[in-house]
Amino acid sequence: MNTNQAFKMSVKSILANKVRSFLTMLGIIIGVAAVIVLVSLVSGMQRQMQEYYASLGTNKINVSVYTWGSPDITSDLYDYCLSLDNLVTGVTPNSTYWGTVKYLTKTVTDAQVYLGSDQYSVCSNYQLASGRDLSYMDVLKYKKVCVIGSKVKESLFNYADPVGKTIVIGGNSFKVVGVYASKGTSWGDWMDNMIVVPYTLNRLLNKTTQMTEFVVKAKSADATTEAITRLNGFLSTRVDSNTGYYNVYSENTWQEQGNQQTMMLSLVLGGIAGISLLVGGIGIMNIMLVTVTERTREIGIRKAIGAERRAIITQFLIESSVISAMGGVIGIVVGTLLTLVLGKVLMQIVLFPSLAMTIGAFLFSVVIGVGFGLYPAVKASALQPVEALRAE
Predict the structure, then answer these.
(1) CB distance 91 to 82 below 8 Å
(2) Could you give the CA distance from residue 288 to residue 136 in angstroms, rounded to a whole number?
(3) Which domain holds residue 195?
(4) Rounded to an integer, what distance in angstroms lies between the CA atom of residue 296 and that of residue 312?
(5) Radius of gyration in angstroms for the set of CA atoms belonging to the chain, rounded to a whole number
(6) Beta strand 88-93 with 60-67: parallel, antiparallel or unpaired?
(7) Which UniProt keywords apply (predicted)?
(8) Cα 165–184–144 angle (5° rounding)?
(9) Torsion of Cα atoms, 57 then 83 then 199 then 103, to 10°
(10) CB atoms within 10 A of CB 14
(11) Which residue from 133, 251, 290, 345 has the fewest beta carbons nearer than 10 Å?
């Protein structure tokens, strides 16, 4: 009997017992679908996280400096970062002001106002949609100008052009000189619900000149590490531990840790779902043992007329692998549909399983069929013709 004949007999046997064959496949279907759905959802979470960090800007260094009874270090830090032109592309204060923002009769109460330098957009990965950005002269001359995010534009101006209009922040009039393009992330629009004003107006808004939060933009991941080392060294000479403290850290670290955690989560969930495949494999072994018992007389006849053990093993292995492969295909279809639905419902994104994972799940299901079908196949091939022919 050649492989083609063995395959045809396997399909015929499966179709002759449709319900039993489907129940046998069920463990493989559930296992493959579970692996695809869980790993795809974790992959979607990782993709959203990467989009989030990309929207914030890569290679950002956050600097916090708190001092009391000591002079403000904003100018010194600014000049020092500019001297690191081989490592740093920009530096800006990043202190905030919370207050009411008004334009004519419209009011926004949840917008966050940042006090930044002319390099704020570079450091925080904002792109202009219209108008201009803050300039060095705006900061130097204490000009009451601002650049607004797309969410603030929508809330205050709808479809009108806000450039040149005057808004009121904390009771003070500011001229809108530019609008930032929307970040467009799946984490919400809070990064667009913002306004940037020159940091030199901190006294006007927060009644203080001291800045405590800064963002430094490094040129690359390698430059980030070296820049952090240099900033720590610089601040250690400027901030007395008795009168203040500082902290320097990079969001690259959080991104790397987040990627490691999602990778571990993917492996754990994939392993848990893989248990269903093993359970499905046990079901295949069980049904193949039943099949061997049902077809003992047939096996005896085949061996009596000269069939080799290899032919008997091949036939039963093909049958078990066909059952497992069919279950794998159905599981892939079910898993893909569930991934599309859950991705849309839970993450509001169109999520597809990766091709590599889909192929891997299918091949693993076939391996499960072959592996768990091996024992029944060997048992069938070991039957003695005389004893097999006596079977009822």
Answers:
(1) yes
(2) 79
(3) 90-215
(4) 11
(5) 33
(6) unpaired
(7) Cell membrane, Membrane, Transmembrane, Transmembrane helix
(8) 25
(9) -50
(10) 18
(11) 345
DSSP string, 332-390: HHHHHHHHHHHHHHHHSS-----HHHHHHHHHHHHHHHHHHHHHHHHHHHT--HHHHHH
Report whether 277 contacts 27 (CB < 8 A).
Answer: yes
Domain count, the chain: 2
| Strands (E) located in the chain | 60-67, 88-93, 95-98, 101-103, 106-108, 112-116, 128-131, 145-148, 166-169, 172-180, 194-198, 213-218, 244-250
pLDDT of residue 1: 53
**Residues 268 and 382 reside in one and the same domain:** yes
pTM for the full predicted model: 0.59
Q: Judge if 314 and 203 occupy the same domain.
A: no
Residue 203 CB-density burial (10 A; 0-12 exposed, 13-18 middle, 19+ buried) = exposed
Residue at 385 is within a domain:
yes
CA 360: distance to chain centroid? Answer: 21
- 191 domain residue, yes or no: yes
Residues written for the chain: 392
